[in-house]
Amino acid sequence: MGLDSEKIDKIESLLDKWCENGGYRDSTVNMPMLSAKLRIPRPELSCYFENYLKSSFRIWLSDIRFKEAQRMLLEECSYSNDTISSECGFSSHAHLYKIFKAKTGYTPGKWRDSVRKKR
């Protein structure tokens, strides 16, 4: 199934707005829920992720949460890792740690320290 450029633009716009409104913060969100919320048929949404983002929904969502966690770690110094994981939609602080270790090689706190030392 292919999507025309109009459909791609619409999906992209809806996903951007969903992210801007903090939809990723819901730790229970899944593809069927997002599809229903955005009123995009699930096969079309799945096609968008697979063919145009070259990603899966879960990886895309994890990346958005990871980027937000990075931002918060640097800008919200008083926030605990539990608070950051909750605010970013991770199911637990352990999941936040796992993602950070996999993507950076560091725990969230060590990553924050390493970035600050470079500045």
Automatic annotation (TrEMBL):
One of its GO terms (molecular function) is DNA-binding transcription factor activity. Residues 9-114 form the HTH araC/xylS-type domain. Pfam families: HTH_18 (PF12833). SMART domains: HTH_ARAC. The keyword Transcription applies. Keywords: DNA-binding, Transcription, Transcription regulation. PROSITE patterns: HTH_ARAC_FAMILY_2 (PS01124). This is AraC family transcriptional regulator.
